[in-house]
């Protein structure tokens, strides 16, 4: 078990584990049709993060996400609205569910997770478009990149 999750319900833990998948779908589908290249890149980034984090708790979160990515992605894509705006609203509503959860966990962990979701969003957006298919962020993707529905957790590394 991830130590930061000791005060969370299983549903809250699942919300955290699914958040990177939801961010990937949100950005990959921002322009309408869900971009398979962006989905694949999101899966790659999530898989890579299993070994990328010094924080063992963050590494375990991404390991759990990596484990469920394919099945959860399939389930979400089958059940989310096909209309881009409706889908984006639902994804943002699900991501907003992180706010009370992140207030219940260690502030350092909450901030690291929040920051990791924002960098994931940017990496997914940059994976398609632009020159040779990389580096361009569309206006539709740009409006979701800041993940405004998730409140930035308060954390002061100096305290």
Tally of distinct domains: 1
Shape: globular
Number of strands: 0
Classify the helix fraction into a percent range: 55-70%
Low-confidence stretches: none
If you had to describe this structure to a student in words, what would you say it looks like?
The chain has 159 residues and is mainly alpha-helical. It has one domain (7-145). The chain is built from 7 helices and no strands. The protein has helices spanning 10-28, 36-52, 56-79, 84-96, 98-102, 107-126, 139-145. Helix 1 packs across helix 2, helix 1 packs across helix 3 and helix 1 (10-28) runs parallel beside helix 6. It starts with 9 loop residues before the first helix and ends in a 14-residue tail after the last helix.
Write the layout of secondary structure elements.
Blueprint: H1 10-28, H2 36-52, H3 56-79, H4 84-96, H5 98-102, H6 107-126, H7 139-145
Helix pairs in contact: 1-2, 1-3, 1-4, 1-6, 2-3, 2-6, 6-7
What's this entry about, in short?
The protein is mainly alpha-helical. The chain is built from seven helices and no strands.
List its salient traits.
single chain; 7 helices; 159 residues; mainly alpha; 66% helix
